[in-house]
Amino acid sequence: MRRAIVLLLFVVALVVGLPASAAIAPSGPPTSTGTGGAAASVETLATQAAIDTLKAGGNAVDAAVAAAGVLGVTEPFSCGLGGGGFMVIRPAHGKVTTIDGRETAPDAMTPTSFWENGVPLPFNDARWSGLSVGVPGTPATWEKALKKYGTMKLKDVLQPGIRVARDGFVIDQTFFDQTDQAKTWFDDIPATAALYLDPDGSPHDVGTTFQNPDLAHAYEVIAKHGVKELYHGKIAHAIVDMVQHPVVAPTADHTWRPGLMTLRDLEHYRAPKRKPTHVNYRGLDVYSMGPPSSGGSTVGEALNILEGYPNLSTMPRADAFHYFLEASRYSFADRNAYLADPKYFDVPLKGLLSKDYAATRRALITTTAAPGAVAPGDPSPYVKGKASATAAFSETTTHVTTSDKWGNAVSYTFTIESTGGSGLLVPGWGFLLNNELTDFNFTTDAMTHPNRPEGGKRPRSSMAPTIVLKNKKPFLALGSPGGSTIITTVLQILFDRLDQGMTLPQAIADPRASQRNATNTGAEPAFLSSMLKTQLEAKGHHFNNGGEIGAATGIEFLAGGGVLAAAEPVRRGGGSAMVENP
Questions:
Q1: Residue whose C-alpha is closest to residue 444's, from 452, 434, 433
Q2: By CB distance 3.0 to 4.6 Å, which of 53, 174, 263, 341 could disulfide with 66?
Q3: CB under 8 Å to 382, separation ≥6 — which residues?
């Protein structure tokens, strides 16, 4: 399991006053069953933090934020204070809702902010810069979630993150590999290099202790004064200074462009509640994240297409998987054409999620694969009124799933975008800033695309935190990292669990293939060596090596009040799933 070896066993004590025994972090398995609450994440310390929060009397929202705080320490290249995300919440008493913690573009951003000399910057030049940094939404998400739906205070749920940052954890192979991937940029930025690299410019060795006292201090300041310190106080000034004037080493071998963010941009940030997307799939209610994420709408449209094949559970696996891939292909065509920040573009969400519209897309699917990319459809006749405005594999994100004994459930996906974000560490505060603004379409169609850069706008996302209800009660909660493959990962898990008779752990472990409206379908090595791949090639599908796809976690609510928590057994070093009462 991820970082199962810890420097000090007491680092996951959650709140002052817990007995020493509560601080011991076991090397949690990828699957656990029992009663009470449950939690699943990519690594043990975060999952244990969530479970200990539940045992201390907190609810699923408290547990999710506690786990997220720890992940900001142990998964700093994937998430943290400098990023954003989306939280889907099913309150024990009330309707499913969501919190939009997506980063926003500075007010000064224009469609050509990523252009120089009349042409768009290459991706890496745009990414490793202050230009790519959006206003962080993660701290505001934590505050909003706790105030609206939690039972504990932010100062309490930040304690596990403070302790892990202060006391340290042991570096594993995944942490080393992610540092190594970004070291040639990290060594340009003195603050980043000082934290993540040895003096010779190499990553810290596997098995050595990693501590982040500056991040512990940042958490302590926020615990004492609230997230206003990040949006108005000393931390805000430090963020803006680093974005506008990146501190670069004299030996730097890359150009680091200044960004556009101001203190005013930080002060004006809000993490609003939004309506979730909703489709009914074979009698189950599937809720996820709406625009500016494309996750919920694309998964929902694909499910609507698949629902028209009533015998998916009985037809040969290759036939059923063919329809899964084609449903994804046609849904992605619409996703790429119509999804953006609804404040800036009239997203035809009701049309995209219409059963009748899905039927028109299904009618285009045959028993063989489309030869390449397909055109988007026209959902406008199916909108029935204005759509509500409240509604690459290297991208590294993380996901936490939690539940409690009262019936609350949380599915939370959050990120700093690419591995290591923008590479800019905020001096004195110990966290990396995101590169989310490279999620805008800023190349040849920058002036016309719905997802073009604009001041104050939230870039399109693919995050798809999902909660499924059965008879109005929680049945599944799940999600995954993985950039645009998040959508296909969540969709495949639902397909495998609901249509193919797999258990949730089997569905999570199943080798993945990701069709995103292209000639080739990206697939994992285990899929490429399978008979299924050969059978699908006979139907006209083409595959290439997509590497590791996703790192999912999920919870299933069992009959009789039981609960099953599941995480990856292998991907991303393996995950950790625990229940309150095994």
A1: 452
A2: 53
A3: 350, 351, 354, 356, 357
Rounded to 5 degrees, what are φ and ψ at 38? -150, 160
Q: What percent of the chain has pLDDT over 90?
A: 90
Q: What is the CA radius of gyration of the chain?
A: 22
Say which of 44, 397, 415, 438 is annotated catalytic: 397
Torsion-angle region of 7 (φ positive above 0: left; ψ -120 to 50: alpha; else: beta):
alpha
Would you call 397 a catalytic residue per the annotation?
Answer: yes
* Bridging pattern class, strands 542-545 and 520-523: parallel
Residues 6+ apart with CB under 8 A from 266: 135, 230, 231, 232, 236, 239, 240
| pTM for the predicted model, two decimal places | 0.93
Q: Select the more confidently predicted residue: 570 or 23.
A: 570
CA pair distance 57, 370, nearest whole angstrom: 53
Over the stretch 366-419, which tens digit does the pLDDT of each residue have? Answer: 999 999 999 999 999 998 743 333 333 345 689 999 999 999 999 999 999 999
Measure the CA–CA gap between 581 and 562, rounded to whole angstroms. Answer: 10
Q: Which residues pair with 99 in a beta bridge?
A: 87, 273
Q: Which helix (H) or strand (E) holds 61?
A: helix 60-74
The pLDDT assigned to 415 comes to 96
Region of 80 on the Ramachandran plot (φ > 0 left; ψ -120 to 50 alpha; else beta): left
Q: What pLDDT sits at residue 17?
A: 33
